[in-house]
Design brief:
5 helices; alpha/beta; Rossmann fold; seven-stranded mixed beta sheet; about 190 residues
């Protein structure tokens, strides 16, 4: 997809401040440091539209990116370990769950898993939440450039075990692998 116009429309944890627009939304979800911001930067063709950090928990709000005045890509805070208080992590989980289950404009979720590691309990719980939401989901195995080709079959089996019927793709922010397939999936929903 060619990005002609891109704006940061909203950064908030307050659902009353979420955009009120007829546009569809596609959210990017995953645990802390799985590569959500890197995926967004790659898809959007920008280096730092979404802030990247080696420290878990850099994204501390729900960030709405208005794409081509047509739809929103939504960056969700990471779940699992982050260098923030337990109270803030709990708030993130509550807001994310409310967003996924109750947001009418949500047309789909790109759920990220780290291809280098088996899915965590938090990943499995999030997949259960997404299945229960009835939303379309695409599972993206991030950091695909960091695993040997011989480990891809294992990574795919691990992901498919918790993804169920949801499609799974490999993605690398470094090489761009998988970006076209993710865009195609997003375009089908918006």
């Amino acid at each position: 997809m060619k990005i002609r116009k891109l704006d940061i429309a909203c950064k908030t944890l307050d659902p009353s401040r979420f955009p009120r627009s007829p546009w569809a939304e596609v959210a990017v979800s995953g645990r802390s440091n799985v590569g959500k911001s890197s995926l967004l930067n790659t898809l959007l063709g920008r280096k730092n539209i979404a802030r990247i950090s080696k420290d878990p928990g850099k994204t501390r709000s729900i960030n709405f990116f208005a794409v081509n005045d047509r739809f929103y890509l939504v960056d969700l805070p990471g779940y699992g370990y982050a260098k923030v208080s337990a109270e803030l992590r709990d708030k993130w989980l509550d807001v994310i769950e409310g967003y996924v289950l109750g947001r009418d404009a949500l047309a789909g979720v790109v759920q990220l898993l780290d291809a280098r590691h088996p899915p965590t309990k938090d990943d499995a719980a999030t997949m259960d939440l997404l299945r229960g939401s009835g939303r379309p989901v695409l599972v993206a195995l991030t950091k695909a450039d960091k695993i040997p080709r011989s480990d891809r079959a294992r990574a795919l089996r691990d992901a498919e075990r918790i993804a169920g019927a949801f499609p799974v793709v490999f993605f690398s922010a470094k090489t761009g692998e998988g970006a076209d397939g993710i865009w195609k999936w997003i375009e089908e929903r918006v």
